[in-house]
Amino acid sequence: MKAGVGAPDRAQITERTYRTDRWWAYPLSTGGILLFFTAYALVRYFMNDHYWAAEEHYLTPMYSPCVNAACVPGSSHFGEFIPTYASWIPIGIITFLVLLGFRATCYYYRKAAYRSLMFSPAACAVPEPAKKYSGERKFPYVLTNGHRYFFYAALIFACINIYDAVLAFHGKNGGIGMGLGTIIILINVVALVAYTLSCHACRHIIGGKLKSFSKHPLRYRYWQFVSKLNPRHGQFAMISLFTVIITDAYIMAVSADWITDLRIFN
């Protein structure tokens, strides 16, 4: 038996949709961005190179933290407690899995992926190709229920990114210095922190299950702050994608000596 718009109790309309606006613009553009970032991330992770600019102390967020024994000297800010493994496995595999898990299970990215990549549905009043809906009860969709746990890991990684940004204030001649890369890293950290803190899971963890805010004034203040960020979660999600790519591309170019870091002082 047909389901959805093809069900026998539904009006049989031959046209796919009667919408005359450019309803396809959002899924097309969003899908393109998601596919581009996915392709870029895979290339960079399997490259296993040009992630650390030693002279400037720039570490790309895509390889942070670098805790593998194969990491280049100076890039392991927290030690090398993971032994070297097969060369075909990315050095930043832990970072890749954590960030992939956090973004893939994110409520915003799930909506964006369903609409733009699986057309489920592509837009309002536009029928989806799927004949039935099974929810997120089967593998791999059931993994989305672990979003709050990925949030804890992403929060730790956000703190690590902040630490990396502090180290980026290293002067070439010693002491404190700043370059264009430092500013790019700072902008990326702000975007990542905003994306992480505006997460729905973060808002629930801070203010969820409280029967009385008056008895928890600090948590209420935090909840108010996160609640102001939450409506812009989708914007921060997309902005942080671009800041991560730009930051990684810049550090890669400096590390590979394709360009010279523009120094502001020292």
Characterization of the model:
- The chain is mainly α and 266 residues long.
- The chain has helices spanning 25-47, 93-104, 107-116, 147-167, 180-197, 200-207, 217-229, 233-255; strands spanning 52-53, 58-59, 178-179, 263-265.
- β1 and β2 form a beta hairpin.
- The longest helix is centred in the N-terminal third of the chain and has 23 residues, at 25-47.
- The model has no long low-confidence stretch (mean pLDDT 90).
- Keywords: Membrane, Transmembrane, Transmembrane helix.
Short overview:
This protein is mainly alpha-helical and 266 residues long. The chain is built from eight helices and four strands, in the order αββαααβααααβ.
> N-to-C SSE series?
HEEHHHEHHHHE
Helix content: 40-55%
Please outline the major beta sheet: 2 strands, antiparallel
Oligomer status: single chain
Using only CA atoms, what is the Rg? 22 Å
**Low-confidence runs (pLDDT<50, min 5 residues)?**
none
Mean pLDDT: 90
Shape verdict: globular
Number of helices: 8
Strand order within the widest beta sheet: 1-2
Approximately what portion of the residues adopt beta-strand conformation? under 5%
Number of domains: 1
Structural class: mainly alpha
Give the distance, in angstroms, between the N- and C-terminal Cα atoms.
Answer: 72 Å
Transmembrane segments: 23-43, 85-109, 149-170, 176-197, 236-256
Protein name: Succinate dehydrogenase / fumarate reductase membrane anchor subunit
Keywords: Membrane, Transmembrane, Transmembrane helix
